[in-house]
Queue: 4 jobs
Job 1
Amino acid sequence: MSKYIIHRDIPGVGSFSPEEYRAAANKSNEVIAEMTAEHKNIQWVHSYATEDIMFCIYIVDNEALIYEHSQRSGFPANIVTKINTVVDPVTAEG
């Protein structure tokens, strides 16, 4: 499985209420559960909300599953990029 970052253009997403975030998360979880029941490997790791963009990290078997999740959930997947390497403070430790 590979890790991807998804750029979702969602106007005003950074100002959503807790209830709106909860509803969005529930919808995503529902679709992931359906896809998992269909033996499709897809896992949502977490997301970051900026003013008008949601950046989501997913682990999936292939990029096509991200687009399928997008279509089924109604959340856009404007740019999908495979993550090759994660660099963090621990990287400096060699």
Job 2
Amino acid sequence: MTDEYPLDKMAGKILSIKKSALELKELAGGIEAVDRNIERILASVKMLEINISDVADIG
């Protein structure tokens, strides 16, 4: 499976999304609506990490 898909590139993009979300949260300065939505984004990113990044580390 790891030969069929560019897991390293995918893992890198996931990390980039996570970093961007955390930067946005910092920029928002406590705006509640942004904070709540960032938490949802980070939960989705966590699922991507479990599905892709963890497999990329194994492969």
Job 3
Amino acid sequence: MKVLVAVGSKYGSTREIAQAIGAEIRSIGFDVDVEDACGVLSVEAYDAVIVGSAVYGALWRRDASALVRQHAEALRVRDVWLFSTGIRELKEPGYATSESEQLASLANAQEHVTFAGAIDYDRLNVGERAVMHVINPPLGDHRDFAAVRDWAHGIGVTLLYLALA
């Protein structure tokens, strides 16, 4: 079974989460590709797809949302999971934007989860720093890789069950 983990990440912290997801599913024995969402031209070669995105202003990155929207028909006939990361998730665990809910419905996703992200203030541009000053989020790395691996392991077990059924 071939699995795609596609990700929209601006500064790389969400990409690292995607890589951890891919590594966990790969450790169970699946063939896994981890790709930036902007580089995915087709999902046809995959049996299962996991799409994740950093969330800015309650919206997914355009490349990740475009992947889901453009390939919705193909995704609906595959096993699909979605994940989001961002600062809002630090304040409201389990928070889902209306966009992420819409994308999950569009792709007929098995599940959408949210993970806390990471904010490296020094890497932000001037506009992003101004926003951070106003909303005053908790800066730093708040990613929980144990939770990420647990979620990915659950997907791997589900895929094993589906492969054997």
Job 4
Amino acid sequence: MKLIKTYIFQHFESLFTLFFASVSCIFLLAIRLKITHSFFLIFLVWNLFLAAIPYFISSYVASKKKIHPVIKGGLALLWLLFLPNAPYIVTDLIHLTHTEAIYKLFDAVIISLFALSGLLFYCISLQQMIVAYTSNWKQWKLNLIRWTIPFLCAFGIYLGRFLRWNSWDILQNPFGLLEDIMAPIVAPASHPTAWITTLGFGFGLYGVFVIFIKFQKNKT
């Protein structure tokens, strides 16, 4: 309990921001549900929950002063497995093609707010993991993480949006997932969507994180 209180006081600003953004998302979605009597966008709540999982993992790692290297490595892999779910919500804007014209603007606002919340979870969680590993890793390794993580997440977005894989499929169908992961690497010319998505979202996520870090520094 003491550890939780200490963490809340130390990270109150980021916790409040994420809490306010999440509650705002659900509030607007509840208004839509009341007006339309439709559960059309209710899946966004589940997607936001999945986006929060890597944040919970990174918060735990960041709050612990000492963690066994094996456990810390396992948590890092689990974190990376779920991290693409955070920026993935941006792709939910594709569902605007199925919304009624009268609600299209309202739905665009709702999905955009969910997407922004997902990006906040992504940026804050990534920042926490980098800080958590600062004392253990050299600077060049941390810089490598800053560059590679966005593109790994972007590839995860491709697997989820276009091939419809989920984070838990690594347990349910690991060989099928591995086959689809290797396919763009073995035959890149045959999988242009994989590379366009990975590079496009990768550079985009890297830019978002850079802006987030600069905003954090300007506040201090």
